[in-house]
Amino acid sequence: MSAAAKLEIQAFFDEPTNTVSYLVWDAATMEGAVIDPVLDFDHRSGDASVESADAMLAEAARRGIKIGQVLETHVHADHLSGAPYIKLKTGAKVCIGEHVRDVQKIFRPVFNATDVSGDGSEFDHLFKDGEQFRIGTVDADVISTPGHTPACVSYKIGDAVFIGDTMFMPDYGTARADFPGGDARTLYRSIQRILALPPETRLFMCHDYKAPGRDDYAWETTVGEAKARNVHVHQGITEDEFVAMREARDAKLSAPLLLLPSIQVNMRAGHLPPAEVNGVHYLKVPIKLAS
Which domains are assigned to the chain? Predict the structure, then answer.
């Protein structure tokens, strides 16, 4: 990273899905990226809009930022991705971790999604663990952090790490690990990779739900704070203790509101399922009949 390189970060919070998206850029070159953009979707009516994505694009245009990448931390289960719209408007490449292939192979038969490749080719680039890239002159590293899903990655860009759903703010804890392909023990080990970074490293969350007793949303902390105060993984919590806690907690959680539409869209890199002969796109709801 050049001496002049400086990463700038602007967060965009989508309250209906409690999702934090980020516009990040190199102040020296004004080259930037978007992380985890949201497509606005009303599941009751099926109406979708690009209001949230347009807000990010408008801010980029106002500042003169050229967006070169859309960085997805994982195949989200709680919101639809706005990545294709960002790509349409900017030409940015849509990137995700290479284990998106595993997610596609898990969910393709669930939805009989015969159009889904299973090889991740819906995305422009699949990152490997440890892969390096740049945003302008700012160095970036890919850290594989599975557990919540097999495809989860964190992006260390300069002194900031965008950790997806690996962890939440220290007073809220960690993400669930009970989705197909998820694993609490794997999640614990991924978190330890993040907590091994220098204590001053900034951590940026993908979600916040306001922990009990906190009035405001928050999405930035540090490795030092997470290591000292995260209610699920602070120092002294063993791997076995974490797994027992996480599995017991997950067993009581209901499915996210947008789980079914989100998986179908996001495993296709944010694209809707192919239109049927009448020109309409449909999302499927697999029915489980009780025996």
Answer: 7-264 (3.60.15.10)
